[in-house]
From TrEMBL:
Its main location: membrane. Keywords: Cell inner membrane, Cell membrane, Membrane, Transmembrane, Transmembrane helix, Transport. The lineage of its organism: Bacteria, Pseudomonadati, Pseudomonadota, Gammaproteobacteria, Enterobacterales. It is a multi-pass membrane protein. This is ABC transporter permease. Belongs to the binding-protein-dependent transport system permease family. Pfam families: BPD_transp_1, BPD_transp_1_N. It is found in: Cell inner membrane; Cell membrane.
Length: 317
């Protein structure tokens, strides 16, 4: 690997770690300033002030915020993410039960959205200026403009309430046959794919068009090579860098949109657990969930940077 590329990647990793440290401080401060008293929330309104004060002392809520942050960040560095206020169990054990479901939803969405977006982007680029291209461009821009919660609500109203094709609630990979598995994931995956496919297709179209306008591809077409073969054999390999970067950036959206989708469809994933923890003032779970989402987001951004650097012809010289 080129030493310059390696140096740039190391710089990206360093900036990512610094960003994660800043995020951890912001997350801890914001969660600590949430309205309400966690101890009072756990004990209920009938609890006496003495009982609430004792529980606050037990949970360490009476300590200064900087001291609690230092202890929390020190525990994380040693693999100790704290204990749940509500369940009195290690938060790692509680969160680990939900991680597979969230990554399964993200994985299925990726497997569906990436090939579909690439096909739409290549088709629009090859039919540039045609009615098909204009319809695809207008369609993708319209979908991007619609918030995912509205797409999810309309999907539930149409496909679950009116047509009864799919369930309104998705309980994930329960013990069911393949058809039931597909029906359970249909609406959440459809909602997430709407925005992802639109974003990736637009960026793929732009990357392919840049290659189609290049002189080497014009020469290839003049030699009698079929347009589809020229695109797949010559344009697509040279556009891998921008397309991979677009895919990574679009997939990073998953870790924001999945919070809304899991809540609407009652999906038993990490995002819905974080929402419940916010309602219950279970701060350790909220903090760990946000850190996990932030870490995944930064990893995808790092992969996007690596793809851009690795396929940049100027850096290969």
């Amino acid at each position: 690997m080129n030493q310059l590329i390696l140096l740039l990647i190391l710089r990206r990793i360093g900036s990512g770690l610094l960003t994660l440290f800043i995020v951890s401080a912001l997350v801890f401060i914001i969660t600590s300033l949430l309205p309400g008293d966690a101890a009072q929330q756990l004990l209920g309104q009938a609890a006496t002030p003495e009982t609430v004060a004792a529980l606050r002392d037990q949970l360490g809520l009476n300590l200064p915020i900087w001291q609690r942050y230092v202890e929390w960040i020190g525990g994380m560095l040693h693999g100790d993410f704290g204990t749940s206020f509500a369940n009195n169990m290690p938060v790692t054990k509680l969160v680990a039960q939900r991680i597979p479901a969230t990554f399964e939803l993200a994985g299925i969405t990726t497997l569906v959205s990436v090939p579909l977006a690439v096909i739409i982007g290549i088709t629009a680029a090859m039919k540039r200026g045609s009615l098909i291209d204009r319809m695809l461009v207008v369609g993708t821009m319209s979908v991007v403009a619609v918030p995912e919660f509205l797409v999810a609500t309309v999907a539930v109203m149409v496909f679950a309430v009116r047509l009864h094709w799919f369930p309104a609630m998705s309980l994930g990979a329960t013990n069911q046959d393949f058809l039931g598995y597909l029906r359970a994931y249909a609406l959440p995956v459809f909602t997430l794919c709407c925005v992802l496919v639109a974003q990736m297709a637009r960026m793929t179209r732009s990357a392919i068009i840049n290659q189609l306008d290049s002189s080497y591809l014009e020469m290839t077409l003049l030699k009698g090579v079929r347009p589809l073969r020229a695109v797949l054999r010559h344009a697509l390999p040279n556009a891998v860098g921008p397309i991979a970067n677009a895919i990574s950036l679009s997939l990073s959206y998953l870790f924001g949109g999945v919070i809304i989708i899991e809540t609407i469809f009652s999906y038993p994933g990490l995002a819905s657990q974080m929402v419940d923890a916010v309602s219950n003032r279970d701060l350790p779970i909220v903090q760990l969930c946000v850190m996990l989402f932030s870490s995944c987001y930064l990893v995808l951004l790092l992969l996007a940077d690596i793809a851009t650097l690795a396929f940049n012809p100027k850096l290969k010289q």
